[in-house]
Design brief:
The complex is a heterodimer of chains A (364) and B (264). By secondary structure, chain A is an alpha+beta fold. Chain A has two domains: 232 residues, P-loop containing nucleotide triphosphate hydrolases (Rossmann fold); 120 residues, OB fold (Dihydrolipoamide Acetyltransferase, E2P). In chain A, 23% of the residues lie in helices and 36% in strands. The longest helix of chain A has 18 residues. Chain A starts with a strand and ends with a strand. With 264 residues, chain B is mainly α. Chain B is built from eleven helices and no strands. In chain B, helix 2 crosses helix 11 and helix 3 crosses helix 6. Classes of the chains: A alpha+beta (364), B mainly alpha (264). At the A-B interface, strand 6 and helix 2 of A face helix 7 and helix 8 of B.
C-alpha cells in the first residue's frame, strides 16, 4: 500500500436536533490508500452512505475532519473536490446525449469542447459502448446506463471515485458481469475506488480492503480474507458468511496460550493471542467449513462431541446440525468427495474436529 | 375508447344519454354563440344567413382593438412576473423540509380559493390606501398575484418528479450552483415553466372581476369591453369577439397541456 488519499479523522454526523436527533456516524476514523478498491459494507442505516456523501461533499460533517492528500476538505463544496460519484440512481442527465453527459464535467472544468469530445470517446471505448454516444439515456438499458454513469464520473480523472450501491438495480447476472467490469476499470485507471454496498459477496469479490460498519461505527477494516477468516465482532462474523457461535469462559491453555472452557466442560484450545486483561465469559466464532466430523470412538478426550440432529445434502457439500447438549447447536459443512468419511446419519454420535486457528474470540 | 366491462357504471343503460345531456349543457351555449357570430341578422337571435362581416366589423373597431391590446399587455406582463415568482417559489419549496412548510405551501395556492370579489375589493382598497393611481399598472400587479398559483403548480409538479441526485451529479461534475441550475434544472423544468406561463396568460386574459375593480381610465381590457358592449345590446359583433377569445384560449390551453406531457 502506498500513500493515503482519503483520511477520515473522528468524523461524526448527526441529522435533526432535539428529540429527532439521529446519529448517522459516530466518530469514524479510516485511511484509504492510493489505487485501492475500498469497500464500506453494512446493512442499511449503518452510516456507509453518509460517510460516502461526506467524502463527496454532499453532506457536512458535524465533527471531525476529512482530508484529501493531507488537505482538509470539510468546507469545500462538491464542485471544488477532485472526487466524482456514481450515484445509485445513476442520475444521468435525461436532456443530454450520452456524449454530452460524459463531457459535462470536462466542460465545467474549462476543457475545450474538442478535447472533451476526444476524452469522451476514450471513455466510451473504456466502458465498451463506443457506438452509443448519440443516444439519450432513456434509450439505454440499466446495465448500459450504469456504464455511462461510470464513464461520466471517470472522464475528469478524479483522485477518488465514489460508488453508491451502483449495482443494486441490476439483475443477478448483470451484477456479476459488472463486478468484473468494475474491478477491471479500477485496475486500468489506477483511480482509488470507494464502494458502498450491503452485499457481502460483492464486497468479498471486488475489494482490496473492506470496512464493516454497523450503527454509525466501523467495526473492522481488513482484506476480504482477514474479514472472513478472522472476524473481530459477532456482527462481522454473522453478517459475512455463516458462523457458529459458542459461549465459554477464558481459561489458561498452557504453553502461554489461552483456551475457552464451554459450559459442558469441554475445552477448546486457542492459537489467537488474547490479552491477559480479558477474563470471564467470551463468545467465540467458527466457520462451518472449518469444522469436521469423526466417529465418536475416534474422538480425543478434549474434543467436542455431539449428536447429529439433521443432515442436509447440497451436492458439493453436506451440512450437519450437531446437538452439543445444553441447547448448543453447531453447524458443520463438509465437502463431499474430499476423501474424508462424510456420511453420518441422523442420531449418530460424533466427535468434532477443528483447527485451533479457526476459532476466533470476539470482542464484547 | 376501451370500455372496462367490470365497471358497474356501464350496466346503467342511461349512461349514453346522461353523458350527452351533460356535454350539451356544457357546450351547447358556446356552440350557439359561435354559430350566431356568423349570423347576417343584426338581431343576434334570429338566423337569416351566413356572413363573416361581424368579424370584419370587430377587427376594425378601434375601441375593441385598444381593449385587446390592453389585455395582451396586462396578460404578458402578469405572466412574466408571475412565472418568475412561481419558479423561484417552487425552487425554494423543493430545497428540503422546513418548519411551517405545509403552511407556506397552502398560502401559495390559497389565491385559487379566495372568492375573487374579496380579492378584488381588498386589492382596490389597498391601492387606494397607498394612493396609487388606478390604471394599467394596478391591473398588472393584481393579475400577477392571482396568476402565481396557476404558474406555480405545474412547475412544482415538475420539480417533484425530478431526481434530486441530478443536481448533486451536476455539482459533483464541477458545476457550481448557478451552472447546475442553468445547465440541468432549468432545461428539465422548461416544460413546467412554459405550461405554467400559458395557463397564467389565459387566466389573466380572461379575468373580469379584478380588472373591473382595480382598473382605471384607459385600462379597459377585452372582457370589460365586451361587458360594456352587451349592456348596449347583444349584437353578433359581441359573439364574434367572444369566439375569437375562445379560440385563443383553446389554443393556449391545448399547447399548455401538450407541453406539460413532455417527458424525458
Amino acid at each position: 500500500m502506498s500513500e493515503v488519499v482519503i483520511s477520515a479523522r473522528s468524523v461524526g454526523k448527526t441529522f435533526g436536533s432535539g428529540a429527532d436527533k439521529v446519529t448517522a456516524l459516530d466518530s469514524v476514523s479510516v485511511d484509504i490508500f492510493q489505487n485501492e478498491f475500498f469497500t464500506m459494507l453494512g446493512p442499511s442505516g449503518c452510516g456507509k452512505t453518509t460517510l460516502l456523501r461526506l467524502i463527496g461533499g454532499f453532506e457536512q460533517a458535524t465533527s471531525g475532519q476529512i482530508l484529501l492528500e493531507g488537505k482538509e476538505l470539510n468546507d469545500l463544496p462538491p464542485f471544488k473536490r477532485p472526487i466524482n460519484t456514481v450515484f445509485q440512481s445513476y442520475a444521468l442527465f435525461p436532456h443530454l446525449t450520452v456524449k454530452q453527459n460524459i463531457t459535462f464535467g470536462l466542460e465545467m472544468q474549462g476543457i475545450s469542447r474538442k478535447d472533451a469530445g476526444g476524452r469522451a470517446d476514450e471513455m466510451l471505448e473504456l466502458v465498451r459502448l463506443a457506438e452509443y454516444g448519440d443516444r439519450v439515456p432513456s434509450q439505454l438499458s440499466g446495465g448500459q446506463q450504469q456504464r455511462i454513469a461510470l464513464a461520466r464520473a471517470l472522464a475528469p480523472a478524479p483522485k477518488v471515485l465514489l460508488l453508491d450501491e451502483p449495482l443494486s438495480a441490476l439483475d443477478l447476472k448483470l451484477r456479476k458481469e459488472m463486478q468484473v467490469e468494475l474491478k477491471r476499470l479500477q485496475t486500468e485507471t489506477g483511480i482509488t475506488f470507494v464502494f458502498v454496498t450491503h452485499d457481502q459477496e460483492e464486497a468479498l469479490a471486488m475489494s482490496d480492503r473492506i470496512a464493516v460498519m454497523q450503527s454509525g461505527e466501523i467495526l473492522q477494516i481488513g482484506a476480504p480474507r482477514e474479514i472472513y477468516e478472522a472476524p473481530t465482532h459477532r456482527f462481522v462474523a454473522d453478517f459475512i458468511g455463516d458462523s457458529n457461535f459458542l459461549v465459554g469462559d477464558l481459561v489458561d491453555g498452557g504453553a502461554g496460550k489461552r483456551a475457552v472452557k464451554l459450559s459442558g466442560g469441554q475445552v477448546i484450545a486457542l492459537t489467537q493471542e488474547v490479552s491477559d486483561q480479558r477474563t470471564g465469559e467470551v463468545t467465540v466464532s467458527v466457520r462451518p467449513e472449518r469444522l469436521g466430523l469423526v466417529a465418536e470412538s475416534d474422538a480425543g478426550a478434549d474434543q467436542l462431541t455431539g449428536t447429529v440432529s439433521t443432515v442436509i445434502y447440497f451436492g458439493t457439500d453436506t451440512t450437519y446440525q450437531i446437538d452439543l447438549g445444553n441447547e448448543a447447536l453447531l453447524t458443520v459443512r463438509m465437502q463431499n468427495g474430499s476423501g474424508a468419511k462424510a456420511d453420518f446419519a441422523e442420531g449418530e454420535r460424533v466427535g468434532i474436529t477443528m483447527s485451533p486457528d479457526a476459532i476466533r474470540v470476539l470482542a464484547d | 375508447m376501451k370500455v372496462d366491462a367490470s365497471n358497474p357504471l356501464w350496466r346503467f343503460r342511461g349512461i349514453t344519454s346522461t353523458a350527452m345531456f351533460f356535454f350539451a349543457y356544457l357546450y351547447l351555449p358556446i356552440v350557439v354563440l359561435i354559430a350566431l357570430s356568423f349570423n347576417e341578422n343584426r338581431l343576434a337571435t334570429i338566423w337569416t344567413g351566413f356572413t363573416m362581416d361581424w368579424y370584419v366589423t370587430a377587427l376594425s373597431n378601434d375601441d375593441m382593438l385598444r381593449a385587446a391590446q390592453n389585455s395582451i399587455v396586462v396578460a404578458v406582463s402578469a405572466t412574466v412576473l408571475a412565472t418568475i415568482a412561481a419558479t423561484l417559489a417552487a425552487m425554494g419549496m423543493s430545497r428540503g423540509r422546513f418548519k411551517g412548510e405545509a403552511g407556506v405551501s397552502a398560502m401559495l395556492v390559497l389565491p385559487l380559493l379566495v372568492p375573487e370579489i374579496v380579492t378584488a375589493i381588498a386589492t382596490l382598497l389597498f391601492f387606494v390606501a397607498l394612493g396609487i393611481k388606478l390604471g394599467l399598472l394596478t391591473v398588472i400587479i393584481a393579475h400577477t398575484v392571482f396568476c402565481i398559483p396557476f404558474a406555480y403548480l405545474p412547475i412544482r409538479a415538475r420539480l417533484e418528479g425530478m431526481d434530486p441526485a441530478l443536481v448533486e451529479a451536476a455539482n459533483d461534475l464541477y458545476a457550481n450552483e448557478w451552472k447546475a441550475f442553468r445547465r440541468v434544472t432549468l432545461p428539465l423544468l422548461w416544460p413546467g415553466i412554459l405550461s405554467g406561463a400559458m395557463l397564467s396568460f389565459i387566466i389573466s386574459l380572461d379575468d373580469f372581476v379584478i380588472s373591473y375593480f382595480v382598473g382605471g381610465a384607459g385600462s379597459t381590457t377585452l372582457p370589460i369591453y365586451i361587458f360594456g358592449m352587451i349592456r348596449i345590446g347583444i349584437t353578433p359583433e359581441v359573439n364574434a369577439v367572444s369566439a375569437m377569445m375562445l379560440i385563443v384560449s383553446i389554443v393556449f390551453v391545448s399547447i399548455s397541456f401538450m407541453i406539460d406531457r413532455i417527458r424525458y
